[in-house]
Amino acid sequence: MQNxxxxxxxxxxLIVVFGIGYYIYSANYxxxxxxxxxxxxxVPASNAKGSVAVAFTDATASIKNINEVSMNVDKVELYSxxxxxxxxxxxxxxxxxxxxxxxxxxxxxxxADVSADSYTKARVTLGDIIVxxxxxxxxxxxxxxxxxxxxxxxxxxxxxxxxxxxxLADKSLHITSKGDYVFAPVVKVEGRSDATVNTSASGTVxxxxxxxxxxxxxxxxxxGSVKNDFMLDTNSKLDVKSGSVINLNTNLNGLLNTNVNSxxxxxxxxxxxxxxxxxxxxxxxxxxxxxxxxxGALNGIINYxx
Length: 306
Hints:
The chain has 306 residues and is α+β, with helices and mostly antiparallel strands. The chain has a domain at 46-237. The chain is built from 5 helices and 18 strands. A 6-stranded mixed β-sheet has the order 5-1-9-12-15-16. Mean pLDDT is 78; it is low at 29-45 and 251-306.
């Protein structure tokens, strides 16, 4: 009987010790899935990486009297809702657009590892644009230094995504009546996920295969805004004043509308006054006033261009 009691006592002690040990172990070494506030994912999505390669090319037509257009690129970034703005490259590189067209080449800007994600915007920061002619080099004025482009670039884990920016120099370059150059970029954008990217020692890159996620065209307006499927009209009469680009066609139309509307109001008021005071003279006066104001506006714009 005494031996039985001792055995029972030892069993109770072992159960208590085992229970205390299990409790301590559970409190200090529990897995993330059993702790409040932790995800059950063992590898967060932000830790998955893929590669992005950005390249520039030019499928432009030849430009009369222009030997070369040298475009400086200072920075390229991508944006996703999860990551914010991510820098792909920030070294300044120069792209000789007409030479790229003549050779049918694309040149690598940068290739970087980024978080696997869907990127909905690209931002390109431009430097100087140098136009070379037989008379020498001249720096073109750009309406804006930054192009923010809506696109869809999908970067998958351990895969390569290619972003090709095809700058159409012949659609982008304009000349003012005073001989200044305006460069309002027109760019075709192509994004390929799961692509094959081969780069030579000289930086020439070939992009093959994969899935085309983005195929769009954008252009910059005189106010620096970037719009889809847009380019400045080749017949636009542009001028540069204090470093800013002015579209004289737009200004002329606005000025004419303002003068015509203003004189329409004046005509209505003069007619009413004339009918009370001197009926005959009032009917002819407003028409002459409106005509004079419009002609004055036209002459002012013409003189400004000259």
